[in-house]
Amino acid sequence: MTWAWFVLVAVTMFAWWLAEGEQKMAGATTTAIFLTACVKIWVIGYQFMELKLAPAFLRYGFLLWLIVISCILVFLIS
Predict the structure, then answer these.
(1) CB 43 within 8 A of CB 8
(2) What is the rounded distance in angstroms from the CA atom of residue 49 to the CA atom of residue 43?
């Protein structure tokens, strides 16, 4: 569980760093921040919702859902 907390903190700090930077490439920055949020969703689902112990169809279904929704939203953002 400790690794998940460190990953969440690191990804949050990275997104914060991206948001505080210069906004020369606002579209790319927004997409990068959104993708870091997707990583956080996966870590929370895998570790804290205990998908690591779930049957394979639930793990892969969650991962597929996350990939599809992420692709759709990144397409709509850009």
Answers:
(1) yes
(2) 9
- Between CA 19 and CA 30 the distance in angstroms is 8
- List the pLDDT tens digit at each of the 78 positions of the chain: 688 889 888 888 888 887 777 667 777 778 888 888 888 999 899 998 889 899 999 999 999 999 999 999 989 987
Q: Give the separation between CA 36 and CA 14, rounded to whole angstroms.
A: 8
Phi, psi of 31 (to 5 degrees): -65, -40
Helices (H), the chain: 2-20, 26-43, 56-77
The answer to whether the beta carbons of residues 31 and 78 sit under 8 Å apart is yes
pTM of the model: 0.78
